Amino acid sequence: MNVLTTDSIRLHGTATNREDAIAEVGALLVSAGAVSQQYVSAMFARESSVSTYMGNLLAIPHGTNDSKDEIRHSAVSVVRYDHDIDWGGNPVRFVIGIAGKGDSHMEVLAAIAMTFSDMTAVEELLVADSAETILHRLGLDAS
Question: Rounded to two decimals, what is the model's pTM?
Fold first, then answer.
């Protein structure tokens, strides 16, 4: 099972603040059947204790260690925003929700880290016109 599919990618998120963005990526994880609603609550708890802002317009909210039992299978959700979201004083345009069971999500995390360490790649993601393009740019498509 792929942990990131086009069904879990949104090109035009609707959130205008950090809390709504966490709810938006969390809802994608829930709709994928990957996590319970309690896991999304744990994503808020994690954010209140430590920011998940990563730099280069990226935040990666995820649950607390105590919420691992709320994960049914590993999954990743990606939401891109048309305008900056204020993430504790930092601009964010990509919010990537992570739910990891075991280490099946580690390859995806590594691909995300590599891509977002390169601002040219981030700029390409900002103008990507399809979920398939985002998957391809992250190096996570099946081809």
Answer: 0.94
